[in-house]
């Protein structure tokens, strides 16, 4: 393991990411599109809802717009990070193989990629967290940003898994948007969840724990430790799976 | 001896591409391998450089390999300078040596003026020169080139042979693969890869 190679790899990967127009456009357009949609359509009416990971008897009262904004912050982070992760692992795979022939250890390239992904996740979580805070008062902003980081971690590692498994770009994007849309973009919405007949399925989807962390931190004083622990566990599971597929 | 290839075999499904391929190369030698499209030339090179594993057989290399693949494998969003830095890290070349070697290659193959340009904005011929220069960056002992002069203009083609002659004088062995080799008298030996065997 050579630190100089890892740092060089990290700096080159970040340069390549930021030079792709689609990445920069996605970073700006996806959160703005999601949040503008909510701002223009959601009502300020106060509603009662409950959070799946809290006691069933605990009901919270928030404006519909506030809940939707927080939920879509989680959704847009998941969408963005999974797309970035897919890009990271799929694009220039052949050239990375040439680097390995020339002396890079695959593990050094992998660490550079993971550091790049983590940096991107933290930046996106910070950017979206601060943006949301301008529209709706967040109770515990640092923990909310941490919750967004967790959804980024879980969905980033899901993107890596899909990118390792599927070589086609379009097929990869389809699989990412399919799960992200159903899971983080729909079923984890607390307004939908409160009325769902069978919420067991929802609890087993990857976005369940990280979205609970973010929403608990946004609206309550309850601890997010449990949800955070399981988020890290699920993200690490996806990460291990992606590495296993990548090397075999 | 700088390269020893012993009984290499490789099959893709039922298609046996290489059947017990063996040969040896010494320092300063220049060997060529020709063959029809799909005869297994690139497969053999990928096995020699370690990109693919053979089904059986052994490869021994004594020294550093420089490999220029058939497809110009470069990062479209990085500049020429950034490529040299990235691959120098892979080879373990120090900053000072990288500077002198990259400047000399850019001067020799005449693409210094594009050093700050991203690869996506360069012509196929210039990309091929960069790909070749990356293979030469660490002054290899064995240079393996897969269709190296595709896309070269006449001037670059002449410079390519001048440069490789200098390398050979310094002890570098070269293995060139092409579907068509002209000027066969330049080579110490030319193999024909036919039905998975070197003839």
What would you say this structure looks like, in words?
- The complex is a heterodimer of chains A (248) and B (199).
- By secondary structure, chain A is mainly alpha-helical.
- Chain A has one domain.
- Chain A has eleven helices and two strands.
- Chain A has helices at 3-19, 21-41, 64-90, 93-102, 106-133, 141-165, 169-187, 190-193, 200-203, 208-219, 225-247; strands at 46-49, 60-63.
- Chain A has a two-stranded antiparallel ribbon.
- The two termini of chain A are 21 Å apart.
- With 199 residues, chain B is an alpha/beta fold.
- Chain B has a six-stranded mixed β-sheet with strand order 5-6-7-3-8-9, sandwiched between helices. A three-stranded antiparallel β-sheet of chain B has the order 2-1-4, covered by helices on one side.
- The longest helix of chain B has 16 residues, at 154-169.
- The A-B interface holds A 2, 4-5, 8-9, 12, 15-16, 19-20, 92, 94-95, 97-99, 101-104 and B 49-51, 65, 67, 69, 71, 73-78, 82, 85-87, 89-92, 118, 134, 138.
List the helices and strands and how they pair.
The complex is a heterodimer of chains A (248) and B (199).
Chain A: H1 3-19, H2 21-41, E1 46-49, E2 60-63, H3 64-90, H4 93-102, H5 106-133, H6 141-165, H7 169-187, H8 190-193, H9 200-203, H10 208-219, H11 225-247
Antiparallel strand pairs in A: 1-2
Helix pairs in contact in A: 1-5, 2-3, 3-5, 3-6, 3-7, 3-10, 5-6, 6-7, 6-10, 6-11, 10-11
Chain B: E1 3-12, E2 15-25, E3 30-34, H1 41-49, E4 56-61, E5 65-68, H2 80-91, H3 95-108, H4 124-136, E6 142-146, H5 154-169, E7 173-178, E8 189-194, E9 197-198
Parallel strand pairs in B: 3-7, 3-8, 5-6, 6-7
Antiparallel strand pairs in B: 1-2, 1-4, 8-9
């Amino acid at each position: 393991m050579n630190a100089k190679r890892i740092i060089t790899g990290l700096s080159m990967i970040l340069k390549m990411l930021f030079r792709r127009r689609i990445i920069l456009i996605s970073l700006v357009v996806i959160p703005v599109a999601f949040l503008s949609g909510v701002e223009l359509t959601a009502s300020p009416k106060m509603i009662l809802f409950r959070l799946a990971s809290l006691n069933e008897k605990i009901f919270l009262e928030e404006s519909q717009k506030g809940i939707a904004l927080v939920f879509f912050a989680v959704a847009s982070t998941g969408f963005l990070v999974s797309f970035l992760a897919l890009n990271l692992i799929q694009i220039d795979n052949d050239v990375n193989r040439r680097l390995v022939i020339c002396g890079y250890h695959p593990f050094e390239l992998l660490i550079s990629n993971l550091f790049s992904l983590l940096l991107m996740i933290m930046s996106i979580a910070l950017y979206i967290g601060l943006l949301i805070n301008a529209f709706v008062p967040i109770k515990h902003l640092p923990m909310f940003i941490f919750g967004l980081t967790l959804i980024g971690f879980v969905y980033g590692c899901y993107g890596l898994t899909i990118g390792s498994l599927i070589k086609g770009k379009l097929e990869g994007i389809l699989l990412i948007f399919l799960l992200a849309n159903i899971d983080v973009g729909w079923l984890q919405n607390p307004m939908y969840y409160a009325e769902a007949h069978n919420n067991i399925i929802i609890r087993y989807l990857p976005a369940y724990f990280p979205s609970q962390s973010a929403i608990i931190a946004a609206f309550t004083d309850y601890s997010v430790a449990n949800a955070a622990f399981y988020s890290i566990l699920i993200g690490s599971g996806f990460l291990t799976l992606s590495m296993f597929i990548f090397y075999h | 001896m700088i390269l020893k290839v012993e009984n290499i075999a490789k099959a893709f499904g039922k298609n046996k591409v290489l059947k017990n391929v063996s040969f040896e190369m010494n320092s300063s030698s220049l060997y060529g391998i020709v063959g029809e499209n799909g005869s297994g030339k690139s497969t053999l090179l990928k096995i020699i450089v370690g990109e693919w594993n053979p089904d059986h057989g052994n490869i021994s290399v004594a020294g550093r390999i420089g490999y220029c693949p058939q497809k110009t494998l470069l990062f479209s969003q990085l500049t020429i300078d950034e490529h040299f830095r990235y691959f120098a890290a892979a080879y373990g070349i120090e900053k000072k040596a990288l500077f002198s070697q990259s400047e000399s290659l850019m001067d020799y193959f005449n693409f210094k003026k594009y050093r700050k340009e991203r690869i996506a904005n360069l012509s196929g011929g210039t990309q091929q020169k960069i790909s070749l220069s990356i293979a030469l960056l660490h002054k290899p002992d064995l240079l393996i080139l897969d269709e190296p002069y595709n896309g070269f203009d006449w001037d670059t083609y002449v410079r390519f042979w001048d440069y490789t002659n200098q390398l050979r004088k310094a002890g570098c062995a070269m293995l060139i693969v092409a579907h068509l080799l002209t000027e066969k008298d330049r080579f110490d030996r030319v193999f024909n890869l036919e039905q998975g065997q070197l003839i």
